[in-house]
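Q: What would this chain look like folded?
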Amino acid sequence: MDTLTPVGRRIRLVVTLLAAALLLGGTLAGSDDWFPFGPFRMYAGVNPPNEPAPDPRIEGVTADGQVIALDEARTGLRRAEVEGWQDSFAADPGRLRRVLVAYDDRNPSGPRLVDIRYVNRMHEIHRGRPTGRYRDVVLAEWRVPA
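A: My prediction, written as structure tokens:
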């Protein structure tokens, strides 16, 4: 078996210290975008067995009242991106305009939307099992200018 040279040992030591520093920095100050050196918060917690499970979503409403789910297929926006903007949508609902622009780009002949809303669907859970019941909480709403 070959042994490492002194230079090889130093290189391994520097790489190990660098990786440890990145992991520590990511853990203390990082976000999901820093993964694998930052926390991946999606799996960092669990809901209690009788507490509602949140399911955030963006919906568009047409002039005739039809509700359309503005998911990745209709907008090209990934769910994680949209969830990451939740606080900014709540602080300034006008930021939902970016979802409308993404929808219009992908659906030029689709139904015209008059309202965009960020909704948190709270699925009822009992003893760790979904009951099939839910309630919607509108976190942000933006009326599309005429």
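The chain has two domains: 6-43, 53-143.
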